[in-house]
Amino acid sequence: MNWFKFTTRTLLALTLVVALAVFLWPKRDRNAPDPRWRETLLANSKPLWNVPDVCLTSHKDDLVFVTATNAGRTTLEYRGISQSRISLFQEVRGGSVWQKDAWSVDGMCEGFYEIAPGESVRLEVEFWDDDKPVRMLGRFSEKGTDRSGLVVLATNDKLD
Q1: Which helix (H) or strand (E) holds 3?
Q2: What pLDDT sits at residue 29?
């Protein structure tokens, strides 16, 4: 009888451990940027604490206008060819997750721009691909820190 109690308790304990492991195991947020960006583009930085709030303002064909608001306490920086044209990074939908695809390469033509706490900026986001579900991201950094990350700015409507 003792053997039966030991086996039953052991099985119950193992079942509980497995159930907790499955429930608590970190899962990738399906809407988070592809982790491969952090391995290359963001390799030497820590994740953003101050993430800008992004809101769609209007759109026309492949051009989308969003407003990025700095609701945090640190100044946000970004690169672009002008204050309203942020450098873009594209992800494509691969199954149930977004996957790293391409980015704009303007290099020397880019400048650095800032969004102070409590301020907003209107950004132009142009989709490069009409044939598949894509989303465009912008890279933001917290001024004076080693924190940086990609933020989803817009997603095309091919997902419906």
Answers
A1: helix 2-24
A2: 56
Virtual CA dihedral for 140, 25, 91, 146, nearest 10 degrees? 20
Mean pLDDT by 10 residues, the chain (160 residues): 64 66 52 85 88 91 92 96 93 86 74 96 88 90 95 75
**β-sheet bridge partners, residue 139:** 150
DSSP assignment, residue 52?
Answer: P
Q: Determine the Cα–Cα distance for residues 83 and 97; give it in Å rounded to an integer.
A: 30
- CB within 8 Å of 114: residues ≥ 6 apart: 75, 76, 77, 78, 143
- Please answer whether residues 71 and 159 qualify as being in contact, where contact means their C-beta atoms are separated by less than 8 angstroms: no
Q: What is the pTM of this model?
A: 0.77
Residue 15: the pLDDT is: 75
Domains in the chain with CATH codes: 36-159 (2.60.40)
pLDDT value at position 104?
77
Distance CA 160, CA 155 (A): 11
